[in-house]
Amino acid sequence: MTLHENEIPVDETLVRSLLKAQRPEWAGLPLSPAGAGTDNTMYRLGDDLLVRLPRTADTGQSVRKEQKWLPRLAPLLSCPIPEPVHAGTPTDAFPLVWSVHRWIDGVEAGPDTVRDWTAFGADLAAVVRELHEIDLMGATRADDLSWYRGGGLEPCDQWISRCLDDCRTTVAPELDVDALEQLWRAALALPEPSGTHVWLHGDLKPTNLLVRKGKLHAVIDFGGLSVGFPDAEHSTLWDLPPQARQAYWDALNLDDVTWTRARAWAIAVGVSGISYYWETFPAFVAECRARLQAILADAAAR
């Protein structure tokens, strides 16, 4: 499935060729698809490894970032995160960096896997608190650690306004796009954030939260790792049931201004996802649509 114009095709033959050239001791292990997101394609390698290949040169930078920072962050977090065990180098066949990580057992968070959503929300809040309290270790909001979700909303307004217009021609019959825009503009009217920069995962949606025995076990996919303001970190709460959202909010004792900005970021990610992936990634569009529906339902209930 090709999602981007500049995407580099990947298949099992390519992955095996990379392994034969760079890690021949792994080249004969069983290899099977293990999912594909908007930025990376994954293959399970044997029982204990995961091959992670970026789709484009832009996401190749995220792979380098994971290789550099995940080993430094992992000892400071109480839940497992990906462990890079090989930093793949570019080849003629695949001209980007790539990674092999340790495999982490678990299933994505969902109604069939999470036992207690209130406990899940509180556990996720604990992970976020730990991450945000880690020393920056000299990192600053620059270069590959300067993702848009860690900044202010205003620089995104022109882009998100176009995406809202796109949504009016695609999902407007089933989503109140005007109401979403009102919520977006309410957040824009607030003062820009001015607090301390922290480490941000950037994309704590259910597909990046692994569950074991009904509880949160691990956090994966740090391609959006950045340094910045924490408001956007909370935007994926609308992907979770209300009881998880409330437990998370209570555990972190977040205020109404943060809630409003986080909701605006959730709208931004939702409408931009629908706009960009409308014709190429129906499953992701459905995910974005569900997020926006949850936002509207939550706003109506308040």
From TrEMBL:
Domain Aminoglycoside phosphotransferase: 32-265
UniProt-listed InterPro entries: AGP_Transferase (IPR051678), Aminoglycoside_PTrfase (IPR002575), Kinase-like_dom_sf (IPR011009)
Domain of life: Bacteria
Pfam families in the cross-refs: APH
Signal peptide: none
UniProt cross-references to PANTHER family, sorted A to Z: AMINOGLYCOSIDE PHOSPHOTRANSFERASE-RELATED-RELATED, BIFUNCTIONAL AAC_APH
Protein name per its UniProtKB record: Phosphotransferase
Originating species: Streptomyces gelaticus
